[in-house]
Design a protein that fits this description.
Blueprint: E1 7-10, H1 13-16, E2 25-30, H2 45-53, H3 78-105, E3 106-116, H4 121-131, E4 134-142, H5 153-159, E5 179-186, H6 193-200, E6 218-219, H7 239-249, E7 257-260, H8 267-274, E8 278-283, H9 286-297
Parallel strand pairs: 1-8, 2-3, 2-7, 4-6, 7-8
Antiparallel strand pairs: 3-5, 4-5
Helix pairs in contact: 3-4, 7-8
GO molecular function, one term: site-specific DNA-methyltransferase (adenine-specific) activity
EC number: 2.1.1.-
Organism: Methylobacter tundripaludum
Length: 310
């Protein structure tokens, strides 16, 4: 395991995770592709750019998301709902594949945090539970803003020439999407929290808030980063957010390793390095490795913090 510490490994995490030893990882914080990115497509940068370019000059409000699953539009007939359900089950099976290997390498009591959309977080949790993890919580990351992406029925009826469209003023097909879900699961403890802590240094959350109160499972007022030009990843999470998750869920003890099997642009790894915690990243897209390495190199030794316990 020592040869993998503080490295970013290139490849499909379902294969790369098999190279790691049993019961060696203390925590996982990861942001896998969401379900709308899933159906029948690979997740390399060329595919992401192709799908973003399709909507560049369209009326779509959110242009940084690689749409193209084929599940957003269309006639809501029996075939559409069947295809939607098949896609969900396929996505759940895919999550189970990597979750099974992740379960094997986690220490007892290890916390695993997985980002996903509000629509599909339940399916991610089911897959993680099938792999053996125990559900603990859903943490809410409240973004600074959100845009409604559904149908404005008043305008829809007006454009199609229906009478009295104003009767449907204010009626839409969705609410404003303003938060992301973070599924929190845990590998089962060894008998209890005390024994697990003493044997593996895992199992607990740091629940003291900055103001002295008790930490909530709603994370808000997180500032967004100014992304450098070389970071072309389309869904970069704020560093402040990932640092907060590291502070709460990653134990500060000797031997701690945090893993991100979907490293993306490396924000989880940067947060871990700033906290003085060993990390392992896995990323399937080669061009993102360079982004991660540049970001990790920018973390100076002065930023790193010592472990609390050894």
């Amino acid at each position: 395991m020592e040869s993998f510490k503080n490295k970013v490994l290139l490849g499909d995490c379902r294969k790369v995770l098999k190279k790691l030893s049993d019961s060696t990882v203390s925590a996982c914080i990861t942001d896998p592709p969401y379900n709308y990115e899933f159906i029948g497509h690979k997740w390399d940068d060329s595919e992401i750019q192709r799908r973003k370019n399709r909507i560049k000059d369209s009326k779509t409000l959110v242009k940084n998301i690689p749409y193209g699953s084929g599940l957003a539009g269309g006639v809501r007939n029996e075939r559409w709902y069947r295809r939607n359900r098949e896609n969900i089950l396929e996505y759940e099976d895919w999550c189970l594949e990597w979750a099974t290997e992740l379960f094997r390498i986690c220490k007892p009591g290890a916390s695993v945090l997985v980002f996903n959309s509000t629509r599909t977080i339940a399916h991610v949790q089911v897959a993680l539970e099938k792999a053996g993890f125990y559900a603990r919580d859903i943490v809410v990351y409240r973004r600074s803003s959100g845009i409604p992406k559904g149908i404005n029925m008043e305008k829809n009826l007006e454009q199609k020439g229906y009478a009295n469209p104003e009767n449907w003023q204010g009626w839409h097909s969705c609410l404003r999407s303003e938060w992301e879900a973070i599924c929190v699961v845990q590998k089962p403890l060894v008998n209890n929290y005390t024994q697990t802590l003493l044997e593996y240094g895992t199992g607990l959350f740091y629940a003291k808030h900055e103001d002295g109160g008790f930490q909530s499972n709603i994370l808000e007022n997180i500032k967004r980063d100014k992304t450098p030009d070389y970071n072309v990843h389309c869904t970069v999470k704020p560093l402040e957010l990932m640092k907060k998750l590291v502070d709460i869920f990653v134990p500060r003890v000797e031997g701690t390793i945090v893993i991100d099997p979907f490293a993306g642009s490396g924000t989880t790894l940067v947060a871990a390095k700033q906290a003085g915690i060993d990390y392992i990243g896995i990323e399937v897209e080669p061009s993102y490795i360079d982004i991660i390495e540049k970001r990790l190199q920018s973390v100076s030794e002065l930023q790193e913090m010592p472990l609390l316990f050894s």
